[in-house]
């Protein structure tokens, strides 16, 4: 049985739907701090749980005979900069609870998301390798880098089967993003449909690694399904689908909306984005567990516009 903590978040929502489809609704327990998404709450088993409450998590593990936990609860980069102490507490202590429950033999397999935010301003920015300088300058990035160190430690010292992916910026149509620096790349599609114009909070040439949500979910399911011996890296795997700048994604959107216009008003998130890589080398994931992306900027743009028109802006 599977428990998803943070099931109402940007990734958690789509991950819950996918896992319910693959494993059956009765084998997937969705949980979050509040009933934040009616579909997730109504379309399967849902429990309110505080990711910082060890006893609440332990109780769910026993109540449902859970074997696998996907810990998707966290504060993302922009929000974390506004709440450093709580971001550190939530991002780190939720991970320690799950790692310690696994060490105690109460969880068989853990998925924990890391991020390209573990890299910092001294990291080589183009085609950033799996192993390189990592001096993250954001609270979120520091928590993800530290989390990776603990995941690797618990695997090596206690045999905990924890698996992790350094997600790039994720783009989805069905769930609003929550406090990320890459979220402009989601909002731009909504504004292209509703307003025909968009003001980007990142400057036009800010290249960032990105991925369509379907690819991120595929990778997450995939890394959890392969045999343990295939998962050779137990900190976290670099992963990427594409890289683009606000100007480049605007050009792609103009192929569908010729009159679409974009302007730029960089805000505090520019400094965060400037500290991150522009592109990622994910060859280790491709080698160890067969990762490959299906979406690039072109087919993602077609998919986003189609889905938004069909489901949200009929
Ligand atoms: C954020 N979307 O912006 C997340 C992600 C690499 C970006 O970690 O914080």
UniProtKB/TrEMBL annotation:
Pfam families: Epimerase. Belongs to the NAD(P)-dependent epimerase/dehydratase family. One of its GO terms (biological process) is L-threonine catabolic process. The lineage of its organism: Bacteria, Pseudomonadati, Bacteroidota, Flavobacteriia, Flavobacteriales. InterPro entries: Epimerase_deHydtase (IPR001509), NAD(P)-bd_dom_sf (IPR036291), NAD(P)_epim/dehydratase (IPR051225). It comes from the Bacteria. It comes from Flavobacterium swingsii. GO terms for molecular function: L-threonine 3-dehydrogenase activity. Transmembrane segments: none annotated. This is Nucleoside-diphosphate-sugar epimerase. Residues 2-232 form the NAD-dependent epimerase/dehydratase domain.
